[in-house]
Amino acid sequence: MGKLLATVTTTKEVKKSQKKQKTNTLHTIIFGSLTPTILIMLWELLCRQGVFPTYQLPAPSVILKTQLSHSKLDF
Predict the structure, then answer these.
(1) Counting Cβ atoms within 10 Å, is residue 52 exposed (0-12), middle (13-18) or buried (19+)?
(2) Packing angle, helices 11-48 and 60-70, rounded to 10
(3) Which three-class secondary structure state does DSSP give residue 72?
(4) CB-side neighbour CA atoms (13 Å) of 12
(5) What is the model's pTM?
(6) Long-range contacts of 22-28 (CB under 8 A, 24+ apart)
(7) pLDDT number for residue 8
(8) Angle at CA 30, nearest 5°, toward 27 and 24?
């Protein structure tokens, strides 16, 4: 017959696991936020350097200005 094995998790192990989960979550949030920010900054830089023609790929700042000028908000 099969044996029934039970494991006992100590409080120290639980706290260590919870701390590791929080660290992983924090890393996910930070890297998840940084990646799009860096890509948009790179896009803006390449557009300003003239790598992309403005009629094909306008800079993010141009897109934002156009969007704001067409919106009802005055900025």
Answers:
(1) middle
(2) 90
(3) coil
(4) 0
(5) 0.61
(6) none
(7) 65
(8) 15
Residue type, 18: Q
Both tokens assigned to 57: 């790929």
pLDDT tens-digit series, residues 18-70? 767 777 888 888 889 999 999 999 999 999 999 999 999 999 999 999 998 88
pLDDT value of position 23: 75
Mark residue 58 as left, alpha or beta (left: phi above 0; alpha: psi -120 to 50; beta: remaining): beta
End-to-end CA distance of the chain: 76
Output DSSP code: residue 74. -
Tokens 């067409």 map to which residue? 70
